[in-house]
Design goal:
Blueprint (H helix, E strand, L loop, with lengths): L1 H12 L8 H27 L1 E5 L13 E6 L25 E5 L7 E8 L4 E5 L2 E4 L2 E2 L23 E5 L4 E5 L9 H4 L2 E2 L3 E13 L4 E2 L10
């Protein structure tokens, strides 16, 4: 009986094994998986669906003001897949009047935003600040002129530009703030592969001078 008692006492003296915090590890893993999935989804959306941009200059006034934040539809002109040429699942081509975001042809690290004036095959001409497409006046309701002077074409093509034919797969673009826009009149055409998408809505706008939001611009469609 004494031996049996000693054995029982020895067994009861053994330290209890520490339980592993399996539940805590499981929660951490779930959070990590959720974060990774969210990041991947954000990357896919940004690359193929919608991307946000901020307006840094006044070349598109008064359609777009400095401090406007907008969303760009990246799939309407077709999705670009890294490593592949061309676009896939295209809904339509850019058309006259579209406001597009594109890589600046002279520096692809910069994004520009302008309005499409001429599409492939169109003949574009500027005479005394007025734009003609295929011989007809193109009077866009968003066009503004903030400089009273007229610049002779011998100095630069802002107000006078000889007729040019838009090449295949290319577009002639201009800013709505015609007198203060550096656009196709100066550096030529935008090729289709440089276009990132169609600007379609303002989701935020900040007036830096007045230090307050432009509430009337938030949620406004871009046309």
């Amino acid at each position: 009986m004494e031996d049996y008692k000693n054995v029982c006492e020895d067994k009861s003296a053994e330290p209890a094994k520490e339980l592993k915090p399996a539940k805590a590890k499981h929660i951490v893993r779930e959070y990590l998986e959720s974060i990774i999935i969210a990041v991947l989804l954000a990357m896919v959306i940004r690359t193929f669906v919608v991307q946000a941009f901020k307006i840094p200059s006044g070349s598109m006034e008064d359609t777009l003001a400095i401090g406007d934040h907008l969303l760009v539809n990246k799939f309407i002109y077709g999705t670009k897949i890294p490593g592949f040429e061309g676009r896939f699942l295209k809904i339509r081509d850019p058309k006259q009047g579209d406001v597009i975001v594109f890589e600046y042809p002279e520096d692809p690290t910069k994004d520009f935003i302008k309005r499409v004036i001429g599409t492939p095959g169109d003949v574009v001409e500027v005479k005394n600040k007025r734009v003609y497409v295929n011989g007809k006046l193109y009077a866009n309701p968003h066009e503004v002129h903030k400089e009273p002077d007229t610049v002779p074409k011998e100095y630069n093509p802002r107000d006078f530009k000889d007729p040019v034919t838009v090449p295949a797969n290319s577009y002639f673009v201009m800013g709505d703030n015609r007198d203060r826009s550096y656009d196709s009149r100066f550096w030529g055409f935008v090729t289709n592969d440089k276009i990132k998408g169609l600007a379609f809505i303002k989701y935020w706008s900040w007036d830096k001078e007045k230090m307050r939001p432009r509430f009337g611009a938030i949620g406004k469609l871009i046309n």
